[in-house]
Design goal:
Number of domains: 4
Number of helices: 5
CATH architecture of the largest domain: 3-Layer(aba) Sandwich
CATH superfamily of the largest domain: Collagenase (Catalytic Domain)
CATH topology of the largest domain: Collagenase (Catalytic Domain)
Strand content: 35-45%
Helix content: 10-25%
CATH class of the largest domain: Alpha Beta
Amino acid sequence: MRSMVLVAVLVAVVSTGCGEESSPTLPSNGSPANTPPVFLSWEPPSDTLDVHVGESVTFSVEVSDPDGDPLSVQFLADGVEAAGDASWTLDIDTERARSVSVVVSDGEAVLSRQWTVRGSIAPPPAVRILDATPLPDFGELSVAWLPGVDALLRPLAVYEIRASPAPFDSDGDWDAAVTRQTVSAPAGPVRRMAATLKGLESGAWYVTVRGLDSRGRLGRMSGSVQVRIVDRRVAVTVMDAVTRLPLGGLRVTVAGVVGETDANGQYVLEGCAHEEFELLVDDGNADGIGGYFDYFGVHSFGHTIVQLIPDEPVASASYPDFSTMYRHLTTIRGIPEGGRTRRWELPLNVYVPAYTNGGLDYQATILAALEDLERVFRRDLFTLVDRPPSVGLRIVYDRSAYVDRYAFESFTADHYPERGRITFRAHYAAAHHASFLTVVRHELGHALGLVNHSPDLGHLMVGGTAPLAPHFTPDERRVLGTFLSLPRGADPLLFIQE
């Protein structure tokens, strides 16, 4: 068998990092080995780059040769020589991938590095909002903005407008917007774009606009414009303060515009010109309506419920009219809002401890009085509790007390009753049951709202002497019934006599 000897010449390739390689030259006979050049640094550091069309990217290298040999540097774009310097800038004008490489040589060894550059279209720039203005129709907002262009300076064809109660600080805020509208741009050139948002509720709103390019990519967000939507409708519902029944046929004057309540006691004025206005409700002495005090107050947009106080007849000679009697008996002196129906939130928590003296069951007598008052006024006035309440009324029996007395113990920060106390003398016996029951009703009358004494000796709420009346008179019932029916905080001074 014949044998063959193959001599192979091997060329070693030395890797110097991702994307680069060098090829040293083998030593020749009698010559020192050549040491290939090396990269000290390169920019960009990443091998794969994503760059928006219209932008540019600069490539550079810093190289060194251990032998001190002079070096040549050549950049190539897609294999074609581009620049013979240590840096080179590529303008991205297409979305196709580009290959950029750099070749360094000392005359013998070659060192190279390669990048892949992928072009992409940038999202459209932010749209400039010109203004956002509420329209006369409630809930409508006109938004205007300058037309935008995409990254290639082509006009945008579609815009999205969004509104939210919160500012637009991120894409998450954009996605959470509750009101949205898409608007297409007209075919020809325009200098101004506008659209109308509808269905916005009262309050502060933030509005922003973003353009979409031909591929449906959203443009950048430039922040938002804040506007305030105000409901300029005025709705008035008028009812009897005691019966809560609607009152139709009453004259209503809103900011000088006169109307009339319908059968449901309602009147609506669309688009009031003034944010604050005077409201007058007048029964006009119309047939079948009955007598009421007129109402006069200052209001703003929205829904107002007016509970008219009946102009009740007054039998007492101590008061000229119902209004005077009402204000005298119910005004809490010593607090700023004492005349503004500062009553308890009903039902009132009441703690009635057990106590018996001389055969008189105090607790049973007081509980009977509570039930009786609920029957008289036809509503739940009290809630019994098994310990002194943090908010409500507590009953105390005191042998050292020389008078029976109701007192406020504390008020809330806005001056509503918070804690109250009725102190009863502990000396009543079974023989005093009737007089004790009268005293109980008297003090409960104070607690419910008749805080002041009446000068009329025929009233249960008379002061300075033991009441002769065992129960509330019709005058007192009408006053207390009206007081308990009016909303907490209502100002009776707004009700005027004709």
